[in-house]
Predict the 3D structure of the following.
Amino acid sequence: ETGVTQSPTHLIKTRGQQVTLRCSSQSGHNTVSWYQQALGQGPQFIFQYYREEENGRGNFPPRFSGLQFPNYSSELNVNALELDDSALYLCASKGVRNEQFFGPGTRLTVL
Amino acid sequence: SQQGEEDPQALSIQEGENATMNCSYKTSINNLQWYRQNSGRGLVHLILIRSNEREKHSGRLRVTLDTSKKSSSLLITASRAADTASYFCATDAGVTGGGNKLTFGTGTQLKVEL
């Protein structure tokens, strides 16, 4: 059984650019969530996907969007990057007891 | 926004001592979970306690939940240097659409010294 993986590990972008982050869920897990963690803070929920449909969204603007694919892998897309988007982006797949299995994260720096 | 707050923000203890972290939250919940994070990387799930449970154990971990006070505590017994990490509580209150949204606190930074 493979764990949650994310790519890339690190990414540097400039303001106004667009970015796509990728996540592969833990084997057999059909629900994936994305979180943003600013330095020194706890993670904040962006959205969740279940069977390729968004089924929950946090307080993030529409320029944060996502996709889930038939193999349950997922993407997080962020358009028109702002400096405050610099953070660790975490992907998590949901286990049978509602616990979340997190990937190692993608560190995004916006200059 | 953060749902809860952990207390203390930072804790430094000697190896072998017990570490206690507290978490308070604001809304009704389905369950509360504790996670560990090393050096700003991915979070590791430690333990989940449901809203109708009061105490749960897992190895050296003991979690209590008081829904009337909207608070939880995590006790790590006989701490080791490898326990050095940030610890977060997270509440699951469900979300419109049927999903699960974890709302995290601000975390407790635990340092266990040899």
Summary: The interface with chain A takes residues 1-2, 30-31, 33, 35, 40-45, 48, 88, 90, 92, 95-107 of chain B (CB under 8 Å). The two ends of chain B are 36 Å apart (CA to CA).
